Amino acid sequence: MAAPGATAGLALLCGLGAILLGALLLAGLLAAPRERRAILDAGAEGRLAARTRALRDIARVLAEPADGITSVRRAKVKLSRRGTRGRLTLRAKRECDVPAAEVKDALEQRLRPLTEPFRLRTRLRITLGGRGDRVP
User: Fold this and answer.
1) Which of 34, 48, 98, 133 is the most exposed place for a label (fewest CB within 10 A)?
2) Closest Cα to residue 107, out of 95, 123, 86?
């Protein structure tokens, strides 16, 4: 403090507040982000949850043998902050002789054992298969 008085005291408090705020921002920046998990059940004993990567892999495995699907390109899981609900987005290619609505119904039926317990909404992006896609 260069000079005594109320102004100098206020400037000192503002400077200390700025230093504290900077330290908190640095701590938040350097801290590792938490991995989000989909919660299946939470009780007094703890939580039963699954990682998004595992859910994504399960969704892809469930969707591949569906009728009319030639390939499943990408499965993506986005969860809410609490992990109690979320969205499963799946991109798939279909055969040209199978209607899109029929393929969509088949995919939703195959994914239901995964989406209902974890409260995931499905968003299906189904396109017509192209040259080089496998046909089961």
Assistant:
1) 34
2) 123
- Rg (Cα) of the chain, in Å, rounded? 25
Tell me how far apart the alpha carbons of residues 16 and 23 are, in angstroms, rounded to a whole number.
11
The pLDDT, as a whole number, for residue 133 is 62
Where do we find the tokens 């005594």? 4
> What token pair was written down for 8?
């100098």
Domain membership flag for residue 38? no
Are 58 and 120 contacting, i.e. CB atoms less than 8 angstroms apart? Answer: no
In this prediction, residue 121 carries a pLDDT of 94
Q: What is the CATH number of the domain that holds 107?
A: 3.30.70.1350
Whether this model's pTM surpasses 0.85: no
Provide the CB-side half-sphere exposure for 43 (13 A, CA): 4
Sign, Cα dihedral of 135, 89, 105, 83: positive
C-alpha 18: how far from chain center: 35
Q: Of 1-5, 94-98, 118-122, 127-131, give the range with the top mean pLDDT.
A: 118-122
